[in-house]
Specification:
single chain, 422 residues, alpha+beta, Aminopeptidase, Alpha-Beta Plaits, eight-stranded mixed β-sheet, four-stranded antiparallel β-sheet, 12 helices, 17 strands, binds zinc ion
Length: 422
């Protein structure tokens, strides 16, 4: 195969894909779905566009294989999170290449991965390989907002496409400087996910004049409650996955990524209070609210977690209201042939790297599929530094072009090994 030619082609596709603004809301994923369809049409791969709602397009493509083995799904999402345009050093939807990086919203989450999967999928077809299983390429909508108009509705509406098999999607990958302070590349393959639990805190108090402080000011009661929550040290999880990771890597560093994978976390995401617009400085309001984004380890019961939070706050005036109680999602087994193939291929390309199974700290489409019996791996086949990883969902998102290329080769070898008929 002419890898150089293929890489040029892939980079061009990625640049063009990044130029399509699929910020969710509103999503407009249909534009992305049609773009992918155009590429697959040229390869004579038939596709199905599934619009779950006007302009909310999903794309499904399949290469037929033998029915003997369970299907493989290369799953990626078309939508991206919105941008705070003023903070960007480059056009977020420009697909610009700068200093060895390809820049733009979606380069990490997850249009680069989508194009990596797309290229591997196309190569399977071009080489006319005989496959031991069906291989799907699925680009979903609405992943950044609960996936309701994406994978959730697809599973519901077209169950014939979704028969339990293997899924490779986002939620893990190679990193440098995240799990260890040295320069080693660590591959964390996502086999499970933390559960998002969103809570509203509400304090009703007594309105009044700002010049006359009193003890029933809802803002002050809320601040004290939040302080108690933030000062409470969440225990390190005693779950086998984390223990295994520590056994392989030694003591893990204290950084936001490691913490998010090994502990329950609580983040204050909204604070709201005040009377008037803009709110008046001299008025004590009668209501003060906050939201907490809590991410729970798989074996934590959300009701018990909320009860414990109530004990930490220790003030009946602070009401805790769950927005939605998350479902339990099983951890995918990682003693599978696919996991071993990934391990082998990674070790071959990155001989001094270490591979560990991890919990993905954020929610992905996998949670809906694991619950239906699919084995899902969060595996983006590229290596990202801690600094670059911080750009995900943030400003100036980018990925090293060389890593994007490496990802195509690595995933290609994995898929070939797993799907080629022996
Ligand atoms: Zn994503």
């Amino acid at each position: 195969m002419n890898w150089d030619k293929m890489k040029d082609e892939a980079l061009k596709y990625l640049q063009d894909y990044l130029k399509i603004d699929t910020s969710n809301p509103p999503g407009n994923e249909i534009k992305g779905a049609l773009f992918l369809k155009g590429i697959l049409d040229k390869e004579n791969i038939s596709t199905r566009i599934y619009e779950t709602s006007p302009r909310r397009g999903n794309l499904i493509a399949k290469i037929e294989g033998n029915k003997g083995e369970k299907p493989l799904y290369l799953l990626n999402h078309i939508d991206v999170v919105p941008v705070d345009r003023e903070k960007w050093e480059f056009e977020p939807f420009g697909g610009e290449i700068r200093d060895g990086y390809i820049c733009g919203r979606g380069t990490q989450d997850m249009k680069s991965m989508a194009v990596v999967q797309l290229m591997v999928f196309i190569l399977l077809k071009r080489e006319n390989l005989s496959l031991n299983r069906d291989v799907y390429f699925i680009a979903s909508a609405d992943e950044e907002k609960e996936s309701i108009l994406g994978i959730v509705q697809l599973i519901e509406d077209i169950p014939d496409v979704f028969t339990p098999g293997y899924v490779i999607t986002e939620g893990g990958g190679g990193t440098r400087g995240v799990f260890t302070e040295d320069d080693r590349v660590i591959w964390g393959i996502g086999v499970g996910e933390k559960k998002p639990l969103f809570l509203h805190l509400e304090v009703k108090g007594e309105a009044g004049h700002g010049s006359q402080p009193h003890k029933n000011n809802p803002n002050e009661l809320l601040v004290k409650a939040l302080n108690r929550v933030l000062e409470y040290k969440q225990d390190e999880a005693v779950i086998s996955l984390v223990e295994e990771t520590i056994r392989k890597l030694g003591k893990l560093p204290d950084n936001k990524f490691v913490n998010s994978m090994t502990k329950n976390t609580v983040t204050v995401t909204t604070l709201k209070a005040g009377v008037g617009e803009p709110p008046m400085e001299n008025v004590i309001p009668s209501l003060s609210t906050a939201s907490l984004d809590c991410r729970l380890l798989p074996d934590i019961n959300p009701y018990e977690f909320i009860e414990n939070l109530g004990k930490i706050i220790d003030d009946d005036r602070v009401k805790i209201k769950p927005v939605k109680i998350p479902e339990d999602v099983p951890v995918s087994p990682y003693d599978t042939e696919l996991f071993q193939i990934i391990e082998k291929a990674v070790s071959k390309k990155y001989p001094s790297s270490v591979i560990v199974a991890i919990l993905t700290p954020y929610a992905t489409d996998s949670r809906y599929l694991r619950n239906k019996g699919f084995v899902c791996y969060g595996f983006t086949p590229t290596v990202t530094t801690k600094e670059d990883l911080s750009l995900m969902h943030s400003d100036n998102e980018k990925i090293a072009v060389e890593e994007f290329y490496n990802g195509i080769e690595l995933l290609y070898h994995i898929i070939l090994k797993f799907c080629q008929k022996s």
